[in-house]
Amino acid sequence: MPPSSFTSKLLTWYAQHKRDLPWRRDTHDPYRVWIAETLLQQTQAATVIPYYARFLARFPNVRALASARLDEVLKVWEGAGYYARARNLHRAAQEIVARLGGEIPSTVEDLLTLPGIGRYTAGAIASIAFGRDAPVVDGNVTRVLCRYFNITGDPKSARTQKELWQRAENLLPRGRAGEFNQALMELGATLCTPRQPRCAACPLARGCAARRLNLQDQLPAKRVKKKLPHYDIAIGIIWKRGKILIAQRPAEKLLGGLWEFPGGHRRKNESLAACVAREVREELGIEIAVGEKMATVEHAYSHFKITLHAFQCRWVRGRPRALGCAAWKWVAPRDLTRYAFPAANRKIIARMTNEPMNQ
Question: Which among 9, 35, 267, 339 is least buried, having the fewest CB atoms inside 10 angstroms?
Answer without folding.
Answer: 267
